[in-house]
Amino acid sequence: MFQFWRNPLVILHVRSSLRPARAAMVAAFSLVVCVLIAMGCWSGNSGNLREFWAHFYGWLLGAQFALLGVWSASTCGQAVAQERQLKTFDFLKTTRLTTLEIMVGMILGAPIVAYFIIACTLPITIVAGLIGGVSLAAILGSIILLLFFNLFYSLAALLASMLVEKSSSGAVGLLGLLGNFFFLAFM
């Protein structure tokens, strides 16, 4: 069985991007953002607690979709192009890793900080949804949809990164953000 947490590229990105001090700072910052979103939802509330929790859940979920989509599209969009700019792309081509292992390492490793932010805020989102009256099936469905959207944007950005010479993360990140907006508009 393929175990992605033993992938050398995932391990490389985790060790370089999630050092303990940085991980603690990111976790604290994401909790502060959750508190600010809660304060914004509370200020527009008419005193109905259930309505507050439902709005809080909606805002958190929307922020998670936007953050994960843009961050993953941006980092995966830079992955191969940045290797070319740093003149280390030949190391990827001569490694013992298979193509699938490199692809999984890039998709799951490059946006590891975004995954960590989602992991920090996901329990708050689940609790807010349950208290707000959202069904457990809808909450789990939205989490699965979040993961599938992220994989799609990451694959599309990785493909775009392989086709360009220079890193264009802004355009790829904008593509991820626009895709999220189009989807949320149709919901």
User: Shape from CA axes?
Assistant: elongated
Q: State the end-to-end CA separation.
A: 37 Å
Main pleated-sheet profile: none
SSE topology string:
HHHHHHHH
Rg value:
18 Å
Give the rounded overall mean pLDDT.
Answer: 82
Structural class: mainly alpha
- Strand fraction equals under 5%
Instruction: Write down how many β-strands occur, each being a DSSP E stretch of 2 or more residues.
Output: 0
Number of helical regions: 8
Assembly state of the chains shown? single chain
Low-pLDDT sequence parts? none
Helix content: over 70%
In short:
With 187 residues, this protein is mostly helical.
Account of the 3D structure:
The chain is mainly α. 82% of the residues lie in helices and 0% in strands. 29% of the residues are buried. The model has no long low-confidence stretch (mean pLDDT 82).
Topology of this protein?
Layout: H1 8-17, H2 20-43, H3 49-85, H4 89-93, H5 99-109, H6 112-131, H7 136-163, H8 169-186
Helix pairs in contact: 1-5, 2-3, 2-6, 3-6, 3-7, 3-8, 7-8
Keywords:
single chain, 8 helices
